[in-house]
Amino acid sequence: MCSLEKRGNLFLLTLTGDDEHRLNPTLIASLLSALSQAKAQSTRGSALITVAQGRFFSNGLDLAWAQSAGSKQGAQERLLHMVKSFRPVVAALLDLPMPTVAAVTGHASAAGFVLALSHDYAVMRRDRGVLYMAEVDIGLTIPDYFMAFFKEKIGAPSARRDLLLRGLKMKGDEAEKRGIVEAAYESEDEVREASVRMGEALAKRKWDGEVYAEIRKGLYPELSAILGLATKAFASPRL
């Protein structure tokens, strides 16, 4: 599950509990509800920070829940359901009218990796946690919107190759060097503090949220198209 807390202009979205934060229907629905609430309560100068309790940021889709269906066909249907259900989470973050920061204090794997990098900025630990696309190792193909996501979010072809075709478990220093995360820090506390500082600095700019979201969607046109996000043009009252 997750919780949403408003602290001044900052929304703090927390993946609660000490489990792996596997993205099953319950957690996906909780995330969508929290993001919808943040969007409804947003004002000029809002920002969202996502954090997770425990060792994991998120270990991806809940494969155990899929396999508990009791048959191969049932497991495949549940897996497909999660892939489709998670798509609106990525869309909601892309369409959120405020800057977003992910504090990656633990492992972010597969869909959990996508969740982290669906934020505008991500910071992570040096000493614990990796970014990892597990699909090539466990024998799963990658959904179309994941592919568009990596194509537009990670500019270097060599980084995409290593993550998607080698199953590279990328630690904080390398992720920072390759420009995948904004920065890497020594401890969980430093990651959280850095994410709050960044969120506060972004919130102080007091950008128009709708304009911000439209520019973000325009930055990732292929992903926005696959997610069914329409774009519009309008002028800010500041002009």
Automatic annotation (TrEMBL):
CDD domains: crotonase-like (cd06558)
Signal sequence segment: none
The keyword Lipid metabolism is annotated on this UniProt entry: yes
Molecular function via GO: delta(3)-delta(2)-enoyl-CoA isomerase activity
SUPFAM superfamilies: ClpP/crotonase
Annotated GO biological process: fatty acid beta-oxidation
Pfam families: ECH_1
Cited Gene3D superfamilies: 2-enoyl-CoA Hydratase, Chain A, domain 1
Keyword Lipid metabolism found: yes
Key words of the record: Fatty acid metabolism, Lipid metabolism
Catalysed transformations (reactions): a (3Z)-enoyl-CoA = a 4-saturated (2E)-enoyl-CoA; a (3E)-enoyl-CoA = a 4-saturated (2E)-enoyl-CoA
GO CC terms: peroxisome
InterPro entries (UniProt xref): ClpP/crotonase-like_dom_sf, Enoyl-CoA_hydra/iso
EC number: 5.3.3.8
Superkingdom field: Eukaryota
Pathway where this protein functions: Lipid metabolism; fatty acid beta-oxidation
UniProt record similarity statement: Belongs to the enoyl-CoA hydratase/isomerase family.
Protein name (record): Delta(3)-Delta(2)-enoyl-CoA isomerase
UniProt organism field: Herrania umbratica
Gene, per the UniProt record: LOC110421396
